[in-house]
Design brief:
By secondary structure, this protein is mostly beta strands. The chain contains 2 helices and 23 strands.
């Protein structure tokens, strides 16, 4: 089974694509932030600081790697539908892509590691406004952006006497593209488009601590905290500008539409051959909380997360972002993990749910947007495999999430419906052979 896990993970890694999303708020900072798509976190609305597992991955807190007892791989498909509305209009956007990928395994007793790829932020926005010039002609300004950042991570965790410590080394990469157009109704002026490309790369660190206290052989209490360093990364920037005309065009369906015809040989601004070196300062984040539970039965958690968005800077320019604060509560229940037979299969399913609420850090005209989300997930075990006297297997997770971001004074609403389907593969590697 070792070969099948590795082959599947490498195939999905080669095909992985980070979703872009559609949100007007992604014009701020490095884009709209991704919360962890790993099922341990997603199915419980972002919990992770105080959670640990022997056969599930939790990259939010690398200290949890020390609890790994099986080689564990995870990847899946993530779909997000955004129902966006204001006082005068509404629209619907959807994106479906392969999500995160990671592989983790124990190295020694109470020592584990993990590596993988996950999205960090997404940028995709578009808005326009009109203005009347002194000669009474109209001009339209269009602003749009796309792109996003991803991160590769490699982490280790170790524990002793109930205390665990871990660290993820993270390499960020990606590009943030901002496009602005000026369209005139008068032929006395030339339409022009400016494209500003920011190529980002650099290293950062995510560290974590956990403390586990057992009341008896079944019940336990966990404390956890994780801190992601808001590091300054390098940015290579260039600008490309070109003139364009707007005329009628005929589609393949013989429809008459308005189309843009861009000049590709005359660039009034072109810095591709001499790009500028800049920096991007990512926000730091702190997440802390506690969990209580009974092994193989249930777990309940309460956590708090703060993200220092006000520290974000791109090429020395700060934004009007504020700090975000979120409270998360969630639980996981397994009726009977060791139940046998098809009639008892439902008892072996892991039922997970979580609720979060707080402020986003995004504000307009002094009004900040609030956030509220509910997540629910099912972890459905596959056929168990047996090596000697130890049972271990894999599972399929199907999770759903609802997220609302809004401000009644501004009349802005975003309602997300998120679906996350993942496969978690478990196997036992590095088995010592015994010869008699």
């Amino acid at each position: 089974m070792k070969t099948s896990i590795l082959s599947l993970m490498l195939f999905l890694l080669s095909a992985i694509s980070i979703a872009q999303g559609n949100s007007p708020f992604s014009q701020f900072g490095p884009g709209d932030f991704f919360e962890s798509n790993f099922q341990t976190n997603f199915s419980r609305a972002g919990l992770g600081a105080s959670i640990t597992s022997g056969n599930n991955l939790n990259p939010i807190n690398p200290a949890s790697y020390s609890s790994l007892t099986l080689t564990t791989g995870e990847t899946g498909i993530y779909s997000s539908t955004n129902f966006l509305s204001n006082e005068s209009s509404s629209d619907i956007f959807n994106n479906t892509n392969l999500s995160s990928f990671a592989l983790g395994f124990p190295i020694l007793e109470n020592v584990g590691m993990s590596f993988g790829l996950s999205p960090y932020s997404k940028q995709n926005y578009s808005f326009t406004f009109n203005e009347t010039l002194e000669d009474n002609s109209e001009v339209k300004y269009e602003y749009a952006g796309d792109g996003g950042l991803s991160k590769l991570f490699l982490g280790f965790g170790a524990s002793k006497n109930g205390f665990s410590i871990g660290m993820n080394g993270q390499y960020y990469f990606g590009r943030l593209n901002d496009i602005s157009k000026v369209k005139y109704t008068s032929s006395d002026y030339k339409n022009i488009r400016f494209q500003n490309f920011n190529n980002v790369k650099g290293l950062s660190i995510n560290s974590g601590l956990q403390y586990n206290q057992e009341f008896n052989t079944q019940n336990y209490f966990n404390l956890g905290a994780t801190y992601e360093l808001g590091n300054t990364l390098s940015s290579t920037n260039y600008i490309l500008a070109n003139y364009f005309a707007v005329n009628s065009a005929t589609t393949t369906n013989n429809e008459i539409i308005e189309a843009e015809f861009h000049e590709t040989s005359n660039f009034p601004v072109d810095t591709r051959e001499s790009p500028e070196e800049g920096t991007i300062t990512l926000p730091s984040s702190l997440q802390t909380g506690f969990s209580v539970g009974k092994y193989d039965k249930w777990e309940a958690s309460l956590e708090y997360k703060n993200r220092d968005l006000s520290s974000f800077k791109l090429n020395g320019n700060s934004t009007a972002l504020k700090n975000s604060n979120t409270f998360i509560v969630g639980a996981s229940i397994v009726p009977n993990k060791k139940a046998l037979g098809l009639s008892n299969y439902w008892k072996t399913i892991s039922y997970n749910f979580g609720i979060k609420a707080g402020n986003t850090g995004y504000s307009f005209n002094g009004e900040e947007l609030s956030e509220f989300g509910i997540n629910f997930g099912l972890g459905m075990p596959l056929k168990k495999f047996k090596y000697q006297t130890e049972n271990f297997g894999s599972s399929v997770f199907l999770s759903f999430g609802y997220l609302n971001r809004s401000n009644s004074n501004l009349g802005l609403n975003e309602n997300y419906l998120n679906i996350n389907a993942s496969v978690i593969l478990n196997d036992k590697w590095f088995i010592k052979r015994k010869f008699k």
